[in-house]
Design goal:
By secondary structure, the chain is α+β, with helices and mostly antiparallel strands. It is built from three helices and six strands; from the N terminus they run E-H-H-E-E-E-H-E-E. Helix 2 packs antiparallel against helix 3.
């Protein structure tokens, strides 16, 4: 499938992508790692809690100067990344609903964040010079699978 990191989609599954989200790659990697394997509805509730700053995402990578949160270790509230992931989870939920899958039985089988394109810009500096001001965009993808209970 063009644009996905999976070779083959499992049976009884739905997929979705968000292309070129303007979020931090480091935050996206940590959020994706946390959400993998969770039930879809529980993941949506948790991400909404991150947006409301009631729940933190535990970080496992890029831990330099990340503060500890009570009961979990290092973590943060990546609000912009959480909004992009909530959009992704809502999209895959709608795709699964279109395929007549039970939303209570859906589990996140695969979720990934990968580099998108780079926006190259220039910021003016002193004496008529300019410095590079590049922005990396992030591609997100998710596959949910219906599991029997």
């Amino acid at each position: 499938m063009k644009g996905y990191s999976l070779e083959k989609v499992p049976e009884k599954s739905a997929i979705a992508r968000v292309v070129e989200a303007n979020i931090s790659m480091k935050d996206a990697v940590n959020v994706a790692h946390f959400l993998k394997g969770k039930p879809l509805e529980a993941a949506k509730d948790y991400v909404q809690g991150v947006i409301d700053k009631k729940k933190a995402i535990p970080y496992f990578r890029y831990l330099d100067s990340v503060s500890h949160r009570k009961g979990m270790g290092p973590g943060r509230y990546p609000e912009r990344a959480a909004r992009a992931f909530l959009e992704l989870l809502n999209n895959v939920s709608a795709n699964a609903e279109f395929k007549n899958y039970d939303p209570e039985k859906l589990v996140i089988e695969h979720i990934a964040a990968s580099k998108g394109r780079m926006l190259k810009r220039f910021r003016p500096k002193a004496y008529g010079t300019a410095g590079a001001f590049n922005k990396d965009l992030v591609n997100l993808e998710v596959v949910v699978k219906e599991v029997p209970e």
